[in-house]
Amino acid sequence: NAGVTQTPKFRILKIGQSMTLQCTQDMNHNYMYWYRQDPGMGLKLIYYSVGAGITDKGEVPNGYNVSRSTTEDFPLRLELAAPSQTSVYFCASRAGQFPYEQYFGPGTRLTVT
Amino acid sequence: QKEVEQDPGPLSVPEGAIVSLNCTYSNSAFQYFMWYRQYSRKGPELLMYTYSSGNKEDGRFTAQVDKSSKYISLFIRDSQPSDSATYLCAMSGGAQKLVFGQGTRLTINP
User: Fold this and answer.
1) Cβ separation of A104 and B44 shorter than 8 Å?
2) pLDDT for A12-66, tens place per residue?
3) Chain A residues within 8 A of B32 when measuring between CB atoms
C-alpha cells in the first residue's frame, strides 16, 4: 500500500496564479482532510470530507476550494494565489472507527512570490 | 483563547534524559487524545492515543490525560537522538475533526 500520496512535492507560484494540489489514498478511507502548516506552527484544517460528494469547511478555508468525486481522491484548489498561502500542505485520511488515527501524506511545499 | 495550547519550545535535552511534553485545552467535550511525531520535512505520524483520563504506556513512551485539569502529557524515558522531532498533541470531541497543538520541537543531544 502506498498510503496517502501527494503531488507535487514542491511548487513556486506567482501571485495571482492558480493550481491544484493532488491527494490520493489507497486505504479505502471515507474521511479525508487538508491541513496547512506554517513554520513553527501546528496544523490548521482547511477543508475535510466525510465521503465522496460531501465536503465541509475547516478553520481556514478562505482562498481554497475542494471536491471529492471519488473515495480515493481529494484535490485542493488554490485560486488567485497570495503570499499568505505560502505554507506546507498536508493531506490526511482515516477510517471510520476508533482510534480515528489520521494517516498523513508527505506534504507539498508551496511558495507564492 | 486557543482550544489547545502547547509550548513550542524548542526543547533540548541530553541523551538518556526523561522528557515531559504537555498540552492544555479548554474544550471539556474533548475525549480522544493523541500524540503525533513529525520528523523534519515529513508528515506527522501517530505515536500514541488515549481515550478519557488515565495513563497509557508503550515502551519508552507514556501518555497521561487529566480531564479534570484539562491537561495532557507525553513522557519519554531514556531519550534517544532518534527521538529528535516535533511532537504535536491532538484531540477531538467526536469522530470528525482533530484540533492540533502548535507542536514542541525536541532535540536529544548525544
Assistant:
1) yes
2) 999 999 999 999 999 999 999 999 999 878 899 999 999 999 999 999 999 999 9
3) 98-100
Q: What is the pLDDT of residue B9?
A: 87
**CB within 8 Å of A39: residues ≥ 6 apart:** none
CB pairs under 8 A between A and B: 55
C-alpha cell at B50: 488515549
Residue A50 contacts B, CB cutoff 8 Å:
yes
Residues in A touching B25 (Cβ below 8 Å): none
Cβ separation A105–B51 shorter than 8 A: no
Question: Could you report the per-residue pLDDT of B61-70, keeping only the tens digit for each?
Answer: 999 999 999 9
Which three cell numbers mark B72?
495532557
Q: Which amino acid is at B102?
A: Q
Q: Which one-letter DSSP state was computed for residue A72?
A: S
